[in-house]
Write a structure and sequence with these properties.
The protein is α+β, with helices and mostly antiparallel strands and about 375 residues long. The protein is built from 12 helices and 14 strands. The protein is about 35% helix and about 25% strand. The longest helix has 29 residues.
């Protein structure tokens, strides 16, 4: 074989091998599993409010873990695990909540992503609907399957597809979320306004952004004019948001974006005055929020106004627990009262059950007077 012929065959073989290797790699890329769905992918464009939660980060935080690890219950039916045989929330990694700008009648959407058991979830939702006297109906919408109560139209429905996400919404907005998730319509990721305020507050385990539409800003301007506050810096607001970053310290960062620098500076002065007044309030200090308010740094930076504060994980945990109690998120059932002993009509309320809770209203029992009356 001539050297030239031999060299040509070697080059041909190398080319075939390289071409085959490239084709194999491309085939492997095509065969690789698709990326896990993100909750924001199913939030339709045009949302006014978007909130996201990073559930693994919150579960790992001492300040928030207790809320996510508690046994969840379905009001009137019992614990979720007992009703469904599993807890759908336990394997979720991300939650997004959206409120459409043009929504009426309480429209909202909730999207969750993570390890989804679609068939088990549909069966659980159907069981809950039946237990409450409803009639579950399962129907296909695109690649999703949705369950709703046919006896309560307009009360929302749950949709899920294999691998997720799980969608909760009502009527037209649920279908808009499905269109966004399947790529037939734009999602909130294309919103430059939400991106701008999200960049301003930064990444966080929890984040919320709100973007006002031109119509909403005009309505705010009209309301301020009617109240005689047409020159209020609030009329210049474009958007606002807040994020909570977790670590050795809990960092809370809130921000608003204005249409000009001067209104942002004026709004900052108003907020600092309100912060100082609230921090000095006795009730605020009593529940432990006074010192936190005093540490909030409020500063205007061009057309943005920022408010920042850091707390230790222990301090944040205490404040979250107190806030939950004040808002009624945690209302432990009172200890059962033993029946009073025979003839012990004068036993004080809550006897043997400890003192009454601070917010309990205890009505004194009437006591007999020497003349047979009551006082």
């Amino acid at each position: 074989m001539q050297p030239r012929t031999r060299d040509g065959l070697v080059l041909l073989l190398v080319g075939v091998l390289l071409g085959g290797g490239v084709a194999w790699l491309l085939g492997r890329r095509r065969e690789s599993p698709p990326a896990a769905p993100r909750a924001l992918d199913a939030v339709p464009a045009g949302a006014m409010l978007v909130a996201t939660l990073d559930l693994p980060a919150l579960r790992a935080s001492p300040a928030f873990a207790s809320f996510l690890r508690e046994e969840r219950e379905i009001p009137g039916l019992g614990k979720v695990r007992d009703v469904c045989g599993f807890d759908p929330v336990a394997a979720l990694t991300e939650v997004a909540i959206a409120i459409p700008a043009a929504g009426e009648g309480g429209d909202f959407g909730l999207v969750t992503a993570g390890a989804v058991q679609d068939e088990a979830l549909l069966a659980c939702a159907s069981k809950v609907i039946e237990a409450r006297g409803g009639r579950p109906v399962v129907a296909g919408i695109g690649n999703f399957r949705a369950v709703r109560d046919s006896s309560a139209e307009g009360h929302g429905e749950i949709a899920v597809r294999p691998g997720g996400p799980i969608l909760l919404g009502g009527g037209a907005y649920l279908r808009a979320m499905i269109d966004a998730a399947e790529g037939r319509a734009g999602n909130v990721g294309a919103s430059g306004a939400h991106d701008a305020i999200a960049r301003a507050v930064g990444e966080g385990a929890a984040r919320v952004t709100v973007v006002l539409t031109p119509e909403q800003r005009a309505e705010i301007g009209r309301e301020l004019a009617l109240s005689g506050s047409s020159r209020s810096p609030a009329a210049s607001l474009l958007s606002g948001g807040a994020s909570v970053a977790l670590g050795p310290e809990i960092a809370v960062h809130a921000a608003v974006l204005c249409d000009a620098e001067a209104p942002c500076a004026a709004l900052g002065a108003e907020l600092r005055a309100a912060r100082d007044a609230r921090a000095a309030d006795f009730a605020t200090r009593l529940v432990g929020f006074g010192s936190v308010l005093e540490r909030i740094a409020i500063a205007a930076e061009g057309k943005a106004l920022h408010a920042r504060v850091k707390l230790s994980a222990e301090e944040a945990g205490v404040l979250v627990d107190r806030l939950a109690s004040l808002r009624g998120l945690r209302q432990p059932a009172p200890a059962p009262r033993p029946p009073p002993a025979q003839g012990d009509s004068d036993a004080p309320p809550y006897a043997d059950a400890g003192p009454p809770p601070p917010d309990a209203v205890v009505t004194p029992r009437p006591r007999a007077t020497p003349d047979g009356g009551a006082r």
